[in-house]
Amino acid sequence: PLRTLLEAAGPLDGAVDVVFTGLDRGVQGGIEQQYERSLMMSDATREEVFLAYAINGQPLPPQHGFPLRLVVPGWYGMTHVKWLRSITVVTRAFRGYQQEPAYHVTSSWDELGEPVTRMLPRSLMVPPGIPDFLPRTRRLPLGACILEGRAWSGRGSIVRVEVSADGGHSWADAQLGGGGGEFAWQSWRHVWHADQAGAFELCCRATDAAGNVQPLSAPWNAHGVCNNQVQRVNVVVGDQLPVQQPVDGR
Predict the structure, then answer these.
(1) Are 138 and 127 in contact (CB under 8 A)?
(2) Do the domains 2-102 and 122-237 sit in the same CATH topology, yes or no?
(3) Which end of the chain is more exposed for a tag (fewer CB within 10 A), N or C?
(4) Which fold has domain 122-237?
(5) C-alpha dist (Å) from residue 49 to 44, 70, 92, 136, 172
(6) pLDDT for res 11
(7) 3-state secondary structure string, the chain?
(8) Are the C-beta atoms of 43 and 79 separated by less than 8 Å?
(9) What is the CATH T-level fold of the domain 2-102, as seen in this structure?
(10) Are 171 and 163 in contact (CB under 8 A)?
(11) In 10 A of CB 17, how many CB atoms?
């Protein structure tokens, strides 16, 4: 846990923020700089925040932040600083570019807006059937179709997932799988009886324990962040298409 490391480092009197500096660099405003993000001390010392050096019993792969990365369960990915170079406790609020103005929900480039922190609820389904290669519309036979997927939120455990077959006009509750912890993905499953041929728009939406519900469309913001609108999957049911046999005849 990060909290254990901070306590071992010494007195934290007057500490305001903890700054995490990665080894990756970039240029902003004509100035070369490291990737840096901060957490308020109250967030950095939460028991679920930790430093990761391994995954599934193996050293952390380079693409996941070797040799060390920050993990802040429930928060969006920009907070999980990879390739950690240093951790610095400061007595003032950190104002680096990746902290401000980046990663804020704002309707204008001229205002700071609200910082991006914990994840909003979101659900995704495994697209059923087989795809049209170019338009990506899915094709299904008539009959019962199992819709399933995962849902998650950083603001509370998932308490409900709903499924729609008419683009969000009506909804049916999906069955939730076993709980895997506050920050774990929540599995869900629903049997859709596709008894009528035609085109349908499938949707799924999640609700968390804090009452947050996925919107049907995403409110616009200048940075394009926190998009958690419902997933939409277009399907065609019941079309009988000719089948081209593969070259090997199987």
Answers:
(1) yes
(2) no
(3) C
(4) Immunoglobulin-like (2.60.40)
(5) 7, 8, 21, 39, 36
(6) 76
(7) CHHHHHHHHCCCCCCCEEEEEEEEEEEECCEEEEEEEEEEHHHHCCCCCEEECEECCEECCHHHCCCCEEECCCECHHHCCCCEEEEEEECCCCCCCCCCCCCEECCCCCCCCEECCECCCEEEECCCCEECCCCCCEEECCEEEEEEEEEECCCCCEEEEEEECECCCCCEECEECCCCCCCCCEEEEEEEEECCCEEEEEEEEEEECCCCECCCCCCCCCCCCCCCCCEEEEEEECCCCCCCCCCCCC
(8) no
(9) Sulfite Oxidase; Chain A, domain 2 (3.90.420)
(10) yes
(11) 21
The residue extents of the domains of the chain are 2-102, 122-237
Q: Of how many residues is the chain composed?
A: 250
What are the pLDDT tens digits along the chain (250 aa)?
999 999 999 878 899 999 999 999 999 889 999 999 999 999 999 999 999 999 999 999 999 999 999 999 999 999 999 999 999 999 999 999 999 989 999 988 888 899 999 999 999 999 999 998 888 899 999 999 999 999 999 999 999 999 999 999 999 999 999 877 889 999 999 999 999 999 999 999 999 999 999 999 988 999 899 999 999 999 999 977 767 778 886 7
Q: Which residue has the tokens 């990746």?
A: 98
